[in-house]
Design goal:
This protein is an alpha+beta fold and 122 residues long. It has 4 helices and 6 strands; from the N terminus they run ββββαβαβαα. 5% of the residues are buried.
Length: 122
């Protein structure tokens, strides 16, 4: 998962972040995972462009396959080694989420072919 253009507080650039709380949302086949970020875990800069472009958060998995990779990323974020905290997990089956997904053109095709063999192939 990659998050970019995050205006973190940086010495000599800005004393405060460009936000009150940094909330990351992971959109996955298992639902939305919403985390409060600690402003330091897996952050990096764009060098001299950080002032204008902001910082980057890049959380990668060491596992192959999306389910194993998702478990790995969730374990990383839930680890006691950082200050990130899970705020919520919202299944895609929640009515408000389903309503929004059905309203998006790219998901209409996905739902139309739900359960069809090889429907996810391009």
């Amino acid at each position: 998962f990659k998050f970019s253009s995050i205006k973190l507080p940086l010495p000599a650039l800005r004393g405060k972040a460009g936000f009150d709380d940094l909330m990351l949302t992971l959109f996955t086949p298992k639902g939305l995972y919403i985390y409060s970020h600690d402003l330091s875990y897996k952050t990096s800069s764009y060098g001299k462009f950080t002032e204008t472009r902001g910082s980057l958060i890049n959380i990668t998995a060491k596992q192959a396959g999306w389910e194993a990779a998702l478990r790995d990323v969730i374990c990383q974020l839930d680890s006691d080694d950082n200050g990130c905290q899970q705020y919520a997990h919202v299944p895609l089956s929640e009515p408000i989420i389903m309503q929004e997904l059905h309203a998006r053109t790219c998901f209409r095709t996905l739902f139309a072919f739900d359960g069809v063999a090889m429907a996810e192939l391009n």
